[in-house]
Fold this sequence. Notes:
- The chain has helices at residues 3-6, 9-12, 20-23, 56-66, 78-90, 107-114, 132-138, 161-168, 224-233, 241-250, 254-276, 299-308, 333-351; strands at 73-76, 97-101, 118-122, 143-149, 174-178, 200-205, 218-222, 283-284, 291-295, 314-315, 325-329.
- By secondary structure, the protein is α/β, with parallel strands linked by helices.
- The protein folds into two domains: 3-252, Aspartate Aminotransferase, domain 2 (3-Layer(aba) Sandwich); 255-351, Aspartate Aminotransferase, domain 1 (Alpha-Beta Complex).
- The relative contact order is 0.13.
- β8 and β9 (291-295) form a beta hairpin.
Amino acid sequence: MSxxxxxxxxxxxxxxxxxxxxIYTSGILLDANENPxxxxxxxxxxxxRYPDPHHRNLREKLAAYHGIxxxxxxxxxxxxxxxxxxxxxxxxxxxxxxxxxxxxxxMYKTLCEIxxxxxxxxxxxxxxxxxxxxxxxAIEKNTKIAFICNPNNPTxxxxxxxxxxxxxxxxxxxxxxxxxxxxxxxxxxxxxLLAKYNNLIILRTFSKAWGxxxxxxxxxxxxxxxxxxLEAVKYPYNVNRITLSLAERALDNLNMKEELITSLISxxxxxxxxxxxLKGVERVFHSDANFILFRxxxxxxxxxxxxEKGIIIRDRSSQPGLSGCLRVSIGLPAENDKFMxxxxxxxxxxxx
Length: 352
């Protein structure tokens, strides 16, 4: 597929901004109007200088981790910045549309609306099984991008590879596969499809399995030509020095990451089994992520009573197909124990 023809015409012709650090990264740097000293220089050496705009060290580490080329990676200030980049590069405001399979992560729709991109929403009869026929019928001639969250948030389930590949086969459309939670179910990744489809964009994040939500770092894996256009549009210093340093250190601690994943999955299964036994819980959705979605006719009461007790979960009942649904993230074992105890108490109250 011709990536160049999918890119907005003005972006194809864009001459990217050249920052000082695009030209030189070392030497006596008197080119960027930086302060040579910093009030925090004892704590953070080098913090007075702009970061590498191309995130070279991080890209090399990520490339080694995934077994791909650094030219296939672009880092960003969290996944949301990267999602926005994808829309701005491939979708013309006021002219083109995007496909979203609901219920899913709400920022896809919000970012499209901010960029004046019309949103086509598909709601499958079974929320765990997106319907390729339904999606194909909804896609328009000017639909330039489709968003897939895999595993899906807030339902927690993996999207079938056949559905993702079906979208990739559609002419004239990019497919963004948001794999924020894929570390909890790595066999479901679309990464193997990259060798076959250059219109695939995969998003990853350090926020979930790595436990680094506070540093705001995500990255894209895609064909080098796609990365070229995205990089031309991104802000020059979009990932700061501290974030880059911490993300690079995280990649040197892979054993710890696996320990975190194993612990979270164990707790997820424990809470799932508990919820399934509760009277007043109608359905516990299968999860391949670090959260659980469950349905109860008492969802509003459960949500409010938990909040009163200082336990905060998400009410997802306003999303398509999720009436009466609540989403709970997997916490520390003691936090999970408290959640389970209070949910049981609350449901006992409804039975009185």
